Amino acid sequence: MLQSQLRSHQFQYVGVSFCDSQTYSRPWLQTCKCQRPESASGITAGDVTSAKHVLEFQDVQQLKQEKEVLTSNGTNGATSDIYDTISINSIEEEAWNLLRESVVYYCGNPIGTIAAQDPTSSSVLNYDQVFIRDFIPSGIAFLLKGEFDIVRNFILYTLQLQSWEKTMDCHSPGQGLMPASFKVRTVPLDGDDSATEEVLDPDFGEAAIGRVAPVDSGLWWIILLRAYGKCSGDLSVQERVDVQTGIKMILKLCLADGFDMFPTLLVTDGSCMIDRRMGIHGHPLEIQALFYSALLCAREMLTPEDGSTDLIRALNNRLVALSFHIREYYWLDLKKLNEIYRYKTEEYSYDAINKFNIYPDQISPWLVEWMPNKGGYLIGNLQPAHMDFRFFSLGNLLSVINSLATVEQSHAILDLIEAKWSDLVAEMPFKICYPALDGQEWQIITGSDPKNTPWSYHNAGSWPTLLWQLTVACIKMKRTHIAAKAVEIAERRISRDRWPEYYDTKRSRFIGKQSRLYQTWSIAGYLVAKQLLADPSKANILITEEDSELVNALISANPRGKRGRKNFKQKTYIV
């Protein structure tokens, strides 16, 4: 009854119900080749937003007053449960309303969601654009809801942007590069100043802060493409010639030969979710986990034909090498940490134990105390003479989801999360990394970045959007109680805090000092987590199980015992 009362009086004067769960349409925004008006019926967007907040505040106050009256009449237990259920349902309803309000249209069709719609911020920057990585949880939320059109449109329109010419300072990157983001712009029609048309304006990094190319965009695109096919049952999209070509272009860009001796992708700092200088250049775990997922998804979707035989062979070879490399050299638990502590250095041989010449003095005091007896994780980065021992959440969670980590390692990662709950979750899930860089280390590595101060933003800030990856990982390992607990913690304040982008401080007590409010992927991450917890079987569209062929290839290859030369039958030569 209370919900119906809330629904009946919201925005009746506007003529559009923001509680409508079946349609994206906002008629005054669905325009093509004409100017898009900023308001309707004399009511501005600001008026609607402020009215919405006033009504929500009044509704919450009314609910609280009714709860207090019923509690005083001795019906506290049952009433409390009903009130909590109503509160949670209202949070979900608010989240869906906000997600639909963030939808961007191109020629009348839904094409994505903007990064944030913060009415309190005077500086938009690029938060009014559709980001590839930011749309992933939004797209999954719509897929799970049975609304496929927006995801299909997103996949096909961003594919068109892949082939655009992209140049910065006279240099053009590889053809397979996907944009970081795009914006729908209204421009005058050629030859007719009185008419306008809508165009897509992509950013491949040439306008981004730091001018960093988005390595992860194409990898996320492949993962979403597979999820769309598995959820909708519409395989015609991935079988299209242009889509197959797009997949191959991304793979060729990633599998291209280079100078690197490792199967991992070599990237610059800031080329993924952590898009500012944070010392992750080299072979960051997040990129490797995404790379592995994209390879598996692409192998599943590529149509067999003569032209793709060599590509599939290279893909399979890379999967084997990458899987072994990450599982063997990135894994860290108490036993492995003790081995590193006793490493000998400067070993020159094919059979060296300390292959990357890691100096034991690199082990930080915090790690010795922090590593639990039960549990472990994949380190953040590995290069010659360098191990980044920080715990990076996204890379570890993705490694559980896509089976890059073994079953034992996956359980150990979740064991560590439970053991270090107060550090990684505390008052808002989930730390993007742990611990924070501070002092001279922060100055040197980040360049004294004022946005990445200790325990803020990408420097160990807490990001609610990571709820969905945590939920999928927990469902896969049949430990959903971990995700349910994290979602419950988020529900205590995320709506009241107006859906921030991230939280600051060691225990996530403050809304981030530069955090955007009504951040779309915070909203979508929560919705995906709720939908998957309600029906865990739906997580299969995102999970890749351990490949038996891959396991057999790993066993037969036995890279540990191989030297860098082929074994030829010994012959005698006269020199």
Estimated structural class? alpha+beta
Mean pLDDT over the residues: 84
Number of strands: 13
Q: Give the count of helical stretches.
A: 20
Largest sheet: 4 strands, antiparallel
CA-atom Rg in angstroms: 25 Å
The parts where pLDDT drops under 50 for at least 5 residues are 1-58, 561-575
Distance between the termini: 96 Å
Query: Strand sequence of the main sheet, in spatial order?
Result: 8-9-10-11
Q: Give the overall shape.
A: globular
Helix-residue proportion? 40-55%
Beta fraction: 5-15%
Catalytic activity: Hydrolysis of terminal non-reducing beta-D-fructofuranoside residues in beta-D-fructofuranosides
Pfam family, one: Glyco_hydro_100
Organism: Clitoria ternatea
Enzyme class: hydrolase
Describe this structure in words.
The chain has helices at 2-9, 45-72, 76-101, 132-144, 149-162, 215-232, 236-239, 241-255, 285-301, 309-330, 334-341, 365-370, 393-401, 407-419, 421-424, 439-446, 467-476, 480-491, 520-534, 548-557, and strands at residues 39-40, 43-44, 103-106, 109-113, 130-131, 181-189, 192-203, 331-333, 376-383, 386-392, 433-434, 503-504, 510-511. With 575 residues, it is an alpha+beta fold. Strands 8-9-10-11 form a four-stranded antiparallel β-sheet. Strands 5-6-7 form a three-stranded antiparallel β-sheet. A two-stranded antiparallel sheet has the order 1-2. Helix 3 (76-101) crosses helix 19 and helix 17 (467-476) packs antiparallel against helix 18 (480-491). The longest helix is centred in the first third of the chain and has 28 residues, at 45-72.
